[in-house]
Amino acid sequence: MTLFEKIIAREIPADIVYEDDFCLCFHDISPQAPVHLLLIPKKPVARIAETSADDQVLLGHLLLKVGEIARQEGYAEDGFRVIINNGPHGGEAVPHLHLHLLAGRQLQWPPG
Fold first, then answer.
1. Active-site residue flag, 98
2. What whole-number distance in Å separates Cα of residue 100 and Cα of residue 66?
3. For position 111, what pLDDT does the model report?
4. Catalytic pick from 27, 36, 89, 98?
5. What is the rounded CA–CA span in Å between residue 88 and residue 80?
6. Which domains does the chain show, CATH number per domain?
7. What confidence tens digit (pLDDT) does each residue in 52-103 have?
């Protein structure tokens, strides 16, 4: 069971911002920006490269929700970044698909 599955099961506490039947959004415990939220699907999907056409509805839901959460939390006007890491060279730390929502400061490009 991954760290994120334990958060979903409420075995590990998290500062939850949003939840519905398909996903959970919470504050990252090691933020890389003044605002660093993680949006995770409740369905255990290891990474974006392992999704299929069967996951199309879930993936669309996650993208719509991350924008909605950014608007609701007041980050949309100044801007925000959404990141999905995949695999070790992509910076993936937890093998459970998750979207990083970063905001609250000017973000640089390229990211690194």
1. yes
2. 9
3. 79
4. 98
5. 24
6. 3-103 (3.30.428.10)
7. 999 999 999 999 999 999 999 999 999 999 999 999 999 999 999 999 999 9
